[in-house]
Amino acid sequence: MSVSPAAQKQFGALYKDHHPWLLSLLRRRLGCDHDAADLAQDAFIRLMRRPQVLEDDSPRAYLTTVAKGLCVDLWRRRQVEQAWRDAVAAWPEWVIPSLEEQALVIETLYEVDTMLRQMPEKVAAAFLMSRLEGLTYSEIAKRLAVSERSVKKYMARAMYECVLLEVQADEALI
Predict the structure, then answer these.
(1) pLDDT digit string, tens, across residues 58-77
(2) DSSP H stretches of helix in the chain
(3) Residue 147: CB partners within 8 Å, gap ≥ 6?
(4) Which residue from 23, 53, 81, 101 could staple onto 97, CB 3.0 to 4.6 Å apart?
(5) What's the gap between Cα 56 and its chain centre?
(6) What are the tens digits of pLDDT across the range 77-103?
(7) Is 55 helix (H, G, I), strand (E, B) or coil?
């Protein structure tokens, strides 16, 4: 990404003026200096990728919105990680995957969680009922109080989202 010298100077001034404020805001929300510093950096990276915001009169509003979203993402990721740790704690030691494999599983679980949260509620519910509970489309339709045809549409949408997630993962590896 090439940035003009004027934009670099403008971004530098914006960083200098707003970084201490944002860091303080994140410290209060998170209670952790390290997490606050990481998220503040992430927020400014996002700001740098959106040069039109540099010209805006309210960079703090943008940074606040981004910081809130980053906090939510961090908390959700930690929920996924904790759920994984709780599940692994119940396994015999010889079954527990390596730390590298666990990191890959956690990342995948987080991506699936994010995908499910972005789906309409009934689509996500139908997908989970089918895949986790092994329910038939007829059983799902009864539970959701919709037609079986609707369940088929929900499942098609969910499968499409899964394929998109897989394509994104493949692109990340390239």
Answers:
(1) 788 889 999 999 999 999 99
(2) 5-30, 33-48, 51-54, 59-89, 99-118, 121-131, 137-144, 148-173
(3) 141
(4) 101
(5) 26
(6) 999 899 989 989 999 989 998 999 989
(7) coil
Residue with token string 């929920």:
79
Q: Could you give the count of Cα atoms lying within 13 Å of 45 in the half-sphere of its Cβ?
A: 7
Token pair for 23: 């860091």
Contact 153, 171 (CB under 8 A): no
From residue 125, give the alpha-carbon distance in Å to each of 101, 117, 143.
Answer: 28, 10, 10
pTM of the predicted model, to two decimals? 0.70
What is the rounded CA–CA span in Å between residue 66 and residue 44? 9
Site of tokens 């390596």 = 98
Q: How far apart are CA 75 and CA 29, in angstroms?
A: 11
- In eight-state DSSP terms, residue 93 is G
